Amino acid sequence: MPLILPGNVGSATAATGFNVANSCRFDDGSSAYMHKTPGGAGNRQKFTFSCWVKKTSGGTEELLSVGGSTYTRIGFEAGDEIKIFHVASGSTAWEIQTVAKYRDPSAWYNFVFAFDTTQGTASNRIKLYVNGVRVEPSSGFGDETYPDQNYTTEVNNAVKHRVGIANNDSSAPFDGYMSEVVLIDNAQLDATSFGEFDEDSGIWKPIDVSGLTAGTNGFYLDFEDSANLGNDAFGGTDLTEVNLAATDQTTDTCTNNFATMNSLDNFHQATAFSEGNLKLVYTSGNRTWNTCNVALSSGKWYCEILKGETNNDKIGIHYKLSAGLTDRADNDSGAWTYLGGKNADDGGVKTGGTTITYTIDPSDSGDIVQLFLDLDNNKLYFGVNGTVAHSGVGIDIPAVSTLENGQYYIFGGSSSASETMTHTWNFGSPAVALSSGVTDANGFGNFEYTPSGTFDSASKDFLAICTKNLAGDS
Fold this sequence. Notes:
mainly beta, Jelly Rolls, 2 domains, 8-stranded antiparallel beta sheet, 34 strands, 1% helix, 36% strand, elongated
């Protein structure tokens, strides 16, 4: 089953067709969600819910939850399986749960849940499609108890409908990104109402859903209005946002997937991830690093790192993941590391434990560190707050063809065993408000400082790390 625009894209991905402009970033730490209560009941036996999802953590998380003490819920179980179930009078009336687990934090998935409890065949009363492919009854489900014929769910009832949290408004908050969230009242639709397979790549991609019939209580969230993220693009009553802000509107979508930091590469560091895997708080005691979820082997790439509480932090590139609790990147032969701590380091750069004199002051809390990676010319550059170090003269790095893994990872980490540190990463889809809004030369990304300029006496354009740039689209 093909994933939706995976994070580690090494080949071209078709850019033609419908493009999704925005998604909404939900943070489980703040229990962010949206809700509305319809004024009257619609069709509680026939409906379809579709959403495009990029998860950033695992565990029990709800996508759609409807009702109060009696409720219908759609979301993820603790093991990252999909579970759809209904509880009435304190007991589970029916439930289905997938065998497959959906836990890739670098990929967008499309989930389509299509209900029609009037169907005579039980397995046709709930149909689940993942990336355009139906999950087969029996073989695709571990738990599989379907509702009785003509069963009435809470969906489309005149009760509270929530996107991104459970029916008690507090537990199982979703952590990640959602785009193209659609509820259709009075129809059991299949996946082709929401997407299609690209004829060149075979990847499942979204189509324009604005022409679908919403029904009495249906809604469509396209997240294109940062001042009203709960806007119903079908024209119905808007959803109310809870713990969401304008900065939670992002351009990281199912048609242009931006890099984030990799929450799966966290075994040794034990870092706290939030804000869509863009804000990292590095734990004291573990002197190692976390990596970006896109491995790079060619091209010119740019990112910015907003520093929070910081003293002994390290930022750079490495050709491998961390292998232990005390893997200090700046002492490792495979790393090129900016020593960024204001009070503990000198603003230099280390390669394999050897310090290179680097004419830039150490960075402090509130500063933005810039990283420019030129894999076409085997050069690495750093800057702070818009000033590129060493007058734009780069650091020589080995060609990727000479590396053990043939690729570099951008990383951040700590060299302290006693202090916590914070980085907020921007690979082109920032988690914080910017005073400016600079795109790359292809028109992608949103940065505080320009990714283009003169480096080693040559004009160079560095790009946001996203699938459209990785595929060579502009």
